[in-house]
Amino acid sequence: xxxxxxxxxxxxxxxxxxxxxxxxxxxxxxxxxxxxxxxxxxxxxxxxxxxxxxxxxxxxxxxxxxxxxxxxxxxxxxxxxxxxxxxxxxxxxxxxxxxxxxxxxxxxxxxxxxxxxxxxxxxxxxxxxxxxxxxxxxxxxxxxxxxxxxxxxxxxxxxxxxxxxxxxxxxxxxxxxxxxxxxxxxxxxxxxxxxxxxxxxxxxxxxxxxxxxxxxxxxxxxxxxxxxxxxxxxxxxxxxxxxxxxxxxxxxxxxxxxxxxxxxxxxxxxxxxxxxxxxxxxxxxxxxxxxxxxxxxxxxxxxxxxxxxxxxxxxxxxxxxxxxxxxxxxxxxxxxxxxxxxxxxxxxxxxxxxxxxxxxxxxxxxxxxxxxxxxxxxxxxxxxxxxxxxxxxxxxxxxxxxxxxxxxxxxxxxxxxxxxxxxxxxxxxxxxxxxxxxxxxxxxxxxxxxxxxxxxxxxxxxxx
Length: 464
Description:
The chain is globular, with a radius of gyration of 22 Å. It has helices spanning 8-15, 17-27, 85-97, 114-122, 146-160, 177-186, 190-200, 214-222, 224-227, 240-247, 254-263, 284-293, 299-308, 323-333, 341-356, 378-391, 403-417, 443-458; strands at residues 54-56, 63-65, 67-70, 102-104, 131-136, 165-173, 203-210, 231-235, 268-271, 313-318. The protein has 18 helices and ten strands. By secondary structure, the protein is α/β, with parallel strands linked by helices. Helix 16 (378-391) packs antiparallel against helix 17.
């Protein structure tokens, strides 16, 4: 049973907002550190080689590493914000040396450069050392034609420097509902083209990734006897397992998605095991609980072990920007120590319930909503707001003895995180961003809510 909402006052009391607020007077909304809870990497040991956990592809019988590399948040050079190919190569080499063999990319990732960067890194290895997954990311109506979609598919092979693709996906079905599915894949004959490419051996496994309208997910599964999906990519983590539809009524619980795939014996590829990092950067009081149970493991490892425990999971994707994140995730799966039933229940009933009641905005900082035609930094606004909610440093009550200092720190932190001309009060509500959000956030509504909150903070109008 899901926990009932607690009142804001009682939740803040449980959160220990008084102590957090006092600490915030020193650092504003910067992340607070606690050596017992958040210093996950200072004692990091080297992950072992030869101990990766693998899952078998039911069709090909090939062994797929339980950890997959999501090539969406690749490392950049510090000086000019260009992607650091040398570091990408090093991390790919390290991953392969430790048994990771599944790499997931898309024409839409890294400002359109992910496939090229991934292709350069992987071309230095034997083709049988890795599986490459990429997608038909024809979101823009300009790419809906048969000709444009097929060109996108063929360009992926050129960029990746391969003559076949191991795992190919219809990207983000459900976004835009059945009408979008019809326009992108069915009416133009593109899905039939991909089925023919699979028959010819240029696609080894065909599947789709799901975000959005559940009608589309159910429809494609109902056609499994015709299409024979080899895998489906879904969002699964211990918060979305039961709370996805309560956090946003337009989303679907991961428990339903996984169960439907199990009925058809379709392997699940897992995305967002960390919810864009939110399950690695949980509030301190939650991090302490997890560290008390497993002092030697990182907070993030709980989410990775959770996502990797179900037997129907083929691989779990992670966008690993830094080497220390790659090493930590390898430690979680070299080998996997599956969660017990008690541990899974603990995450569901205690940790997920606590996170749900914090009422953050479910933004994963994927940047699919960008660029905004009016220059609004949508993910930057949401990330800053969520961070302050998690740390208990939002100014909430002008009667609080720390209100004036929290107010000053919050406004300074916002201006440092997001330039003023790109803040929420400049949103005109055009709605162009909303159809592109995988989390189906009502973006203009949330931006207007935050804009009103910021104005109330400036005018000192807040009352608990």
